[in-house]
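Local shape tokens

___
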Amino acid sequence: MGNKVSLEEELINLRITSKQMQRSSKKCEKNEKSAIEKLKKAIQQGNSEGARIYGQDAIREKNQALKHLRMASRLDACCSRIETAVRMDQVTGSMQGVVKGMGKTLKSMDIEKISKTMDKFEQQFEDLDV
């Protein structure tokens, strides 16, 4: 039907967006510091109206920086959930192959094959735990 975007691609896109949010936060912090410097200058010059405007700008920039950081954090949380889903999907696929192999070896009743299959099965579970 259409192009299906894989979870890995979505994970990359979310990580890029998270980095952009972090950069935006840093930029807002820089703008906040600039506004505070302008505020100090306006206060020293006795420009109360300008000082009020610069103060509002500084507050707005600080709030914006916090919002960007919060969004970056939420995106990172989504990234970790998607990464877990991708890994679980990979493990599920390999576990299906092992279980199929177990069925075949159990039918043949070959002890060595059963032992090898069980070792592979246990290894998959250890990988899953890691």
